[in-house]
From TrEMBL:
The family this protein is said to belong to: Belongs to the ATP-dependent AMP-binding enzyme family.
Name of protein: Putative 2-succinylbenzoate--CoA ligase
EC number per UniProt: 6.2.1.26
GO biological process, one term: fatty acid metabolic process
Leader sequence residues: none
Statement: the UniProt record of this protein carries the keyword Repeat: no
Keywords per UniProt: Ligase
One Gene Ontology MF term: o-succinylbenzoate-CoA ligase activity
Pfam families reported for this sequence: AMP-binding (PF00501), AMP-binding_C (PF13193)
Biased composition (Basic and acidic residues): 172-181
Coiled-coil spans in chain: none
Amino acid sequence: MSPLVAVPDHIAQARRRDGLAPALPWRSFADLFKSRIHDRALVNRPFLTYRDDDRNIHYTYSYAEFGAVVQRAAAFLHDSVGLRRGDRLATLLFNHDVTVVLYFAAWLSGITVVPINVEESPEKKRFILDHSEASAVCCRHSYMEEVTSLQKELPALRRVIAVNDEGFLEEAGREARDKGKPSSKSSRLTSLGSSLDDEALIVYTSGTTGLPKGVVLTADNLLTDADAIADWHAFGADDRLMCVLPIHHVNGTVVTLVTPFYCKGSVVLNRKFKSAAFWRRLHEEAVTCVSVVPTLLEFLLDANEDATACNLSAFRGFICGAGPLLKDTAARFEDRFGFPIRHGYGLSETTCYSCFLPNDLSREEHRHWLTGYEFPSIGVPLRHNTMAILDGEGQPVPELARGEICIRGGTVCAGYFKRDDANDAAFQGGWFRSGDEGFYVRDERGRPFFFISGRLKELIIRGGVNISPLEIDDALKSHPLVRFAMAIPFENRYYGEEIAAYVVPRDGTSLPTEPDLLAHCRRFLPFYKCPKVILFGDDVPYTSTGKPKRLELKSRLASALAAHRDSQFTER
């Protein structure tokens, strides 16, 4: 497998940067990496601070210390694991400093990272490991038995590497946090031939077909979006971005790992989000910005913590996206806490963010674009990419008219891995077609402010996480008393969307109950994918061609589900 991504013409057309910002000055990720860790002004400045409240862990790497640890990890991957440029390394890890080190070590060496959510089912994990052709996987030691059992079915998977809090278990006697100087061998790794066109990530995202699709992101994609995000928000060496989102997702990875490194800033990585510690953490770490999803804004509103005792003079506001933001949530949050929500939009296929609300808006203008229309605006395109609203024929639609949100430029991915069918559907006419419905409105300066009004796709986005409804359908249909089942989203204050299910029972004397079906789903699905409400009916909503009418059903049941808009469903 060549380490360079061979991009078909129709995908290359959607990635062109004609008339946009100039190309990056770096030749590879290793080029950027060396420039940062050898910058005398950065040597003793903090880059990565890791906080784990449950274990009372708190420590910081300087740029020099981080560089040394990353180079040693790269040497381990090269010498002990046998990975080379173009190989793929899967990870079954959570937010941890070792995970960050591993990512950077792989990119430094031209190795592709395939992050896998530890909460996925064994079947989904096996599919991703197999489809991605991963040569090795790094997993927490607690998942070692599960992964080695899958390895028997995966001929490409040569190594399974256990990781604990100190690093790779194979490196007995030498902790990953050792602050010593890198060996000469590991230093030479940074000069190995590599390119911005190397694969950096294959991120598997749920699709309407039910099977995950592997989004191929290059090193150029990661650095281009980091450059765009840093430019838009004027991030620099004095900025400290806090990460509370999972770093197996592009939001946590790109916004709060790659972008701080790119702009010479620093990152505060949390093991997990905790509303009770949130404002105190901003104070303790002098955080300037944090990236969240709308769900976390609701949790902070409910917690209603008193932040007046915290010194938040450094904090400038929230980056928010990756899920439906309600106008009411945005207005209540800004009124309660006084910090601006920098609302934006993007997809894994566009690396992360493609647009944001401008930061030069007055307070009144900002509130207008958040609440003055049916939906909050997702903002204006970033440099390196452009956006348009197109009809089904690929033609631009007038202002305020509904169409499909389309994106073109340097943040667009290199395609879906081994999915020519998905590539043909998504890359058309020189654009990446998002599958999301939207419209735009120009301001007095002529800038197009975009809005997302719905999804042409049928994905459910719960708390910023994409969920395929077909997976839920299948779990419900496996119940012996269920004739037909269809998962549908409904508007929810906490998660933007929550999951309901419409069920048609089989004919007979016994009928399924809601508690019975909910318990049945928990046998097959993690809690976040399970329906929280079951509605029963007697008609099967299929089209004449046999396609389920999910969107029609969602609309038909909206009034019945409206009573659950403010419900917070918890695992029991």
